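Problem statement: downstream parser choked on a complex file, so we are re-checking the raw output for the S-adenosyl-L-homocysteine run. The parser issue turned out to be on our end (a line-ending mismatch), but while we're here, posting the original submission so the record is complete.
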Amino acid sequence: MSFNASVITLFPELFPGPLGASVLGRGMTDGLWSLNAIGLRDFTTDRHRTVDDTPSGGGAGMVLKPDILARAIDMVSPPHDERPRLLMSPRGKPLTQQWARQLALGPGAVIVCGRFEGIDQRVIDARGLEEMSIGDYVLAGGEVAAMVLLEAVVRLIPGVLGGQDSHADESFENGLLEYPQYTRPQSFEGIEIPAVLTSGDHGKIARWRAEQSQALTAMRRPDLLAPRKP
Ligand code: SAH
């Protein structure tokens, strides 16, 4: 079983975009995951291929119509489909590393990208869409948000990062930010690599990295260290 992502969007031509590059692109070629982008406009029935209408109750902008979107979802994700149905939305559950890791173990995801003011609430409810946010700011559309979500998830699919499948040290994996990294040359603009890293003493290196992680997290993200509020 490999991971399959179906993305419903007004702009299917934006995909795979960055998801087709580097190790993620190779993972796709190797069959570790697949992506299909579905154009929402293909599910319209009128001559003008209308996907949106004015908000009921008034106000600015346009809202994606529920009937068109429901048709697209039903085609892409029939009732026996076990993939979660996600809707990219600033009102959604914040995307986390832990959540990405869970999704990476599953069969994939169906991802709906909003545009304009958003989508009709009735289709969110009727098709059980789970709203996911990539942060507390508002984008113009869900496409980039879907790419962010997929990039975070797909690199965690076993085999995609090749030999580096242990992510234990990475930022957020152990509740901390990652320690600083260095590589050659030994001297860069007069600054040396910290001596401990070239000492060959693996115990000392592990302790130094742990201390650095702890200090960096305390300084930049004390919220990660604070006990979770109930
Ligand atoms: N009126 C909406 C915002 C619409 S932005 C509101 O105030 O909540 C248009 C589309 O961009 C949304 O439907 C969503 O799919 C996407 N989007 C915008 N910001 C996002 C975010 N932070 N996370 C995920 N998707 C986002």
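For whoever reads this later: The chain is about 30% helix and 20% strand.
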